[in-house]
Amino acid sequence: MEPVVIVGSGLAGLTAAWALAPAPCILITTGCLTGGAASMWAQGGVAAALGAGDRPELHARDTFVAGARYGDRQVIDRITSAAPEVVRELARLGVPFDRTPSGDFDLALEGGHGRHRVAHAGDHSGATITSVMSARVAGLPSVTVREFSTAVALTTYGGRISGVDVRDEHTGMVQHLSTDRVVLATGGLGGLFAHTTNPVTATGRGVALAARIGARTDDLHLVQFHPTALDVGADPMPLLTEALRGAGAALLADGRRFVDELQPRDVVAAAVWEQLTAGRRVVLDARHIHQLTERFPSVTALAAGHGVDIRTDLLPVRPALHFSMGGITTDADARTSLPGLWAVGECSRTGLHGANRLASNSLLEAVVTGKAAAASAATFDDTWPAYAGADPDSVVAATDSTDDPTVLAIVRATLDTHCGVLRDGEGLQRAIDELAPYAATSDAAYVGWLIARSALAHPDSAGAHRRTDEPVMAATA
Predict the structure, then answer these.
(1) Considering 115, 117, 212, 265, which one is annotated as catalytic?
(2) Is 265 a catalytic residue?
(3) How many domains does the chain have?
């Protein structure tokens, strides 16, 4: 049997490669291992019901409520139930989670959570966890890592995956890898927006690869805006972690507090946006937090790099695209609608996040889906029926899958203007019309076009998707 090909080296892709061992796999990554992975940027941690008095059912309830009651209850129950063991397993693999003097996990409180339940490694948990998993994968003889390589197209035969076309970023040459099993772990699409906390390379490539060969996608309009990106003119925007507000940082508009900072992100982001559009200056005040720089060294360094001292300065903030809840539709085994194709992590749509991701559920999802895909791919055979909607023999690729900088700039400006914190039908139709001419030749424009189409097709507001022309919102505007 041919090796599994995994596209992407963030936490989800690394977990899949690790869990597949000793079965062979080829891991494709556009840079060096973990390079450009949003997992490396995650500041919060892994949410899990590990504290006294906490239970997975409570974690599930908070996840469902934060997701605007839009998530899949079975998926939520399954993943939150797995969460405590995920944290323990990561600890056994060598992740140095912060501990209390008694040796228990030091659990943080974040927005939307009713309990302290976020296991963390300082304020750089994503980098720590991903680096530990990367070291594990790099030492596996079963894993062949192809760095500086980009998957530009998937191929199918008889309605099933038949291979991947991979471009060498040094030579520009494209090679076809024959395989009947591909795991997409390409991350999110936040780089398609002009204001984002994501790597600017996060342009939804996995969604483009899958959708161009007929794989089902859902909820692409559901994108989360983090309410507290540091507004200092940087691209991407530095993230001020949720944990700052959990520790007591306050949001102020022209000096006055205007929102409960520990509400779910969609609520806080909308409140911040309302203040900004009214012409007020919005800042995060973290100056009074005890042992601020000791507890948040990464944020301290990040802010200092932009000339801001979190000990003495008020921190200017604005919402920025942070996470995509929608994506390539998957089942409990991370399988997509096409036989031989799995999707894990942020490029997938599992149903966990509903219409708004609960803080620190993304790293959890990455590990759970990565393991699920590995288990399923290891036992894959021809009994999985072909997807009826797939072409019998196809390869569909953008003519410019590198995404021309000029086109990408158009996509980012268009989505930022028309698909931001607040949307309406007229603006969404304008976005569709502006992006349509580029969709056939640019993956970035194609995914942006899909996002706008999905948003226009959903006239009712839900979580992070807020339509100002919805009857309820229009009546209260």
Answers:
(1) 265
(2) yes
(3) 3
The answer to whether residues 174 and 86 belong to one domain is yes
Give how far the C-alpha of residue 329 lies from the chain's centroid of Cα atoms, to the nearest Å.
14
What's the 3-state SS for the chain?
A: CCCEEEECCCHHHHHHHHHHCCCCEEEECCCCCCCCCHHHHCCCCEECCCCCCCCHHHHHHHHHHHCCCCCCHHHHHHHHHHHHHHHHHHHHHCCCCCECCCCCECEECCCCCCCCCEECCCCCHHHHHHHHHHHHHHCCCCEEEECCEEEEEEEEECCEEEEEEEEECCCCCEEEEECCCEEECCCCCHHHCCCECCCCCCCCHHHHHHHCCCCCEECCCCEEEEEEEECCCCCCCCECCHHHHHCCCEEEECCEECCCCCCCHHHHHHHHHHHHHCCCCEEEECCCCCCHHHHCHHHHHHHHCCCCCCCCCCEEEEEEEEEECCEEECCCCCECCCCCEEECHHHEECCCCCCCCCCCCHHHHHHHHHHHHHHHHHCCCCCCCCCCCCCCEEECCCCECCCCHHHHHHHHHHHHHHCCCCECHHHHHHHHHHHHHHCCCEHHHHHHHHHHHHHHCCCCCECCECECCCHHHHHHC
Question: Is there a single domain that holds both residue 33 and residue 137?
Answer: yes
Please give the average per-residue pLDDT across 109-128, as a whole number: 91
For residue 426, the enclosing domain spans 398-477
Structure tokens at 451: 């996002």
Q: Looking at the structure, do residues 242 and 187 belong to the same domain, yes or no?
A: no
Read off the CATH number of the domain in which 476 is found. Answer: 1.20.58.100
Question: Which CATH number is 342's domain given?
Answer: 3.50.50.60
The domain boundary residue, chosen from 371, 396, 421: 396
How sure is the predictor about 236, in pLDDT bands with cuts at 50, 70 and 90?
very high
The reply to whether 310 and 295 lie within a common domain is yes
Q: Are residues 382 and 403 in the same domain?
A: no
Among 390, 454, 393, which residue's Cα sits nearest to residue 423?
Answer: 454
**What is the crossing angle of helices 362-378 and 125-138, to 10°?**
20
Per-residue pLDDT tens digits for 54-71: 999 999 999 999 999 999
- 61, 192: one domain: yes
Query: Do both 282 and 175 map to the same domain?
Result: no
Residue 284 sits in a domain of what CATH number?
A: 3.90.700.10
Nearest Cα residue to 365 out of 48, 133, 132: 48
pLDDT in tens, 288-343: 999 999 999 989 999 999 999 999 999 999 999 999 999 999 999 999 999 999 99
Asked if residue 124 has pLDDT above 80, the reply is: yes
Asked if residue 132 and residue 19 are part of one domain, the reply reads yes
Domain boundary pick from 273, 293, 319: 319
